[in-house]
Amino acid sequence: MSYLTKQKWLLVNSALAIALILSLVLCAAIGAEHISLAQIWHSPSLDNPEAVIFFRIRLPRVLLAVIVGGALGVAGAALQALLHNPLACPHLIGVSGGASLCGILALVSTSVLASHTPEFVRLSFVSVAAFAGAIGTTVLIYRLALVHGRLQPYALLLTGVVFNAFCSALIMLVNSLVDFYQSHAILFWLMGSLATHDYVTVGLTSLYVLIGVTWLIAQGRRLNLLSLGEEGALQLGVDIETLRRGIFLAASLLVGAIVAVSGMIGFVGLIVPHLLRLVFGADHRLLLPASLFGGALFLVWADTLARTVASPSELPVGVVTAMCGGPFFLYLLRKEGRKVFVQ
Amino acid sequence: MSEKTQPLLRCDTVSFAYDKIAALSSVSVEITPGEIFGLLGPNGSGKSTLLRLMSGVTSPRSGQILFAGQNLQTYEREALARQIAVVPQESRIELPFSVLEVVLMGRSPYLKRFGFEQARDLAIAQHAMEHTGVSTLATREIHELSGGERQRVVLARALAQEPQLLLLDEPTAFLDIKHQVEVYDLLKRLSRQQGLTVVAIMHDLNLAALYCDRVALLKSGKVFAQGTPEQVLTYVNIKAVYDTEVYIGMNDITGKVHILPLDEENRRRLQREEPNRR
Fold first, then answer.
1. CB-based contact A268:A325 (threshold 8 Å)
2. Are A273 and A80 in contact (CB under 8 A)?
3. Considering the domain B1-83+163-232, what is its CATH architecture?
4. What is the pTM of this model?
5. Which residues of B touch A278 (CB under 8 A)?
6. Structural domain boundaries of chain B?
7. What are the residue ranges in chain A where pLDDT is below 70?
8. Nearest residue of A to residue B85, measured between CA atoms
9. CB contact under 8 A, A235 and B52
């Protein structure tokens, strides 16, 4: 079928949703400590230590992986359409650089000022700072990428890349000024992690993500028309300026909320939409929801791998996504690159 | 009767400038329903600017453009996309869409927010593809096509919009002679049978003479002459606008004027022998 039908849409999305739900339960059961799903089914109360591991430790982490992965997938797909660049990813628009910088500054200052404060207070302070950094950066990048009052994709791309490089340099500066333990914490943040989060964080993050993702998915048809170029989209009835602003703001909201809780997890937003486009076609009405499920699936399994492969110690999930994503992406580039670069 | 004579599109003393460089000054053109109207003129004479203004993507600095008697700028974008379709000179489509998907994009202004194309939309798209001879390419990816094939896909997309007015910017620039006449034959059929109104920028004066009901000859952002091809495409007008000598004759088969360029040697000889040639 060379075009998107309602049947295909329903089929693909429900298949992906079922795969995600199965993965969710399965991955929460897998871990360093062996637990039995049957046991938990029989006594789901918190008197059962296996149920405690399942509900209190693993399930929030797996749920966070779903939210973060899904949001990265959708943001990636939308930004690839906005920037007219199939190689764009959520970390390219500069927002994650600003969020990381603020998060790391908060990380360093809390450990300097009050090393005896409880862990969860420190963590939530870091998240709030990172989110504030993301919002600030969004506004800054948006202002810088306006040319004659219009949001220009190429200006946005360049501004984002340069701003990210600038933030990286500042992060390195901070890193070189702090002691070994803080430096280690910074490194862990930069590599991305889904560990140590409670249901409150998961709930709050999912709220932001839900708003951004819903709005972006609703723009599917208009995102298709963006590929015709500015005038082409206008002539088919798209208010292109409003659409561009909306995509940028929604993607920034997503990236900000994600970086605040999980640091820099790369490659999800880059390879998931790219791979799904090859399999299911370029229509964003399907690509966006499929990227939500696909990104979630990818990150849930990557994080399970990160937890278990070197058990009892743990790898940063960003390392796992990069190690899976990097070579795979290079392969895609060799195979499909001609289509992307030669036009 | 009065409805028949009312122009579909009316440009009333329209001016436009890019930054401070004037592109159009006080252009007035009326497009009658069902006609094929050619916009002619040398490079930089303002043809493309006029076409962009007619499509409603930019608004004139002064003057106004009326579509079906109503100011173009007051239309809602999607409503306008159901009335006016545009075929640009060259189309780049960046993502790997199939040919059918690109043509179906023409149905977008008719869909609901979360809507999918219905059987009717598919039938219209397929019909449009048959018209432009790209049905066999339906499942191919748009990247894989040649420039000429892609142009015919984009024309099919524009037809799928079921517009009243079709605006084309040199639609056959990349096509060979067979496909050039096929495109114009199709436009002529659509205008005669279905009342489609066509405004096309054309570089080929012979094709303009052959297919256009009326033409406007632009020079430096102004309308130099407008009327039937026979009235406008005269030796004097062409010399004044294009600044070159041409041979103008009559085609025995079509009964239309035809215009041939002359080389330097013959241009010199003509100026020597017949300095006041008309």
1. yes
2. yes
3. 3-Layer(aba) Sandwich (3.40)
4. 0.88
5. 96
6. 1-83+163-232, 92-162
7. 1, 111-123, 196, 336-343
8. A235
9. no
